[in-house]
Design brief:
Layout (H helix, E strand, L loop, with lengths): L1 H74 L3 H32 L1
Length: about 110
């Protein structure tokens, strides 16, 4: 019976140590899980704030682009319009030069 008693004591101590270590492991896992959930919650809040900032910046950029689109026809001239204006100005200068040439020829002929 003494051998049985020693085996029972050894198994009891081994069982106690196993339960103790499993308890420590599960407690540590619970703490890690709580920490992870807390970090995930913080990340969600940060992501939400970043998403809101991105949406705000996107709206500002959209508004600026819309203002630019509206101001382009008012503030800038298209290439075709510029070409037409230059052609008209050149035609007027050509007519002006012809008139000046005609006047100078007339004045030379009179002398």
């Amino acid at each position: 019976m003494e051998v049985q008693l020693i085996v029972n004591i050894i198994l009891g101590i081994a069982s106690f140590l196993a339960v103790f270590f499993f308890n420590r492991i599960f407690t540590t896992l619970d703490k890690l899980q709580d920490s992870l959930q807390e970090q995930c919650s913080l990340r969600e809040v940060e992501n939400k704030e970043l998403r809101e900032k991105m949406e705000e910046n996107s709206k500002k950029t959209h508004d600026e682009l819309m203002q630019l689109a509206v101001s382009l026809p008012r503030d800038y001239v298209t290439k075709n319009d510029l070409d037409k204006i230059i052609t008209v100005i050149n035609d007027r200068f050509d007519r002006f030069e012809k008139k000046i040439d005609h006047i100078t020829e007339s004045s030379h002929n009179r002398r």
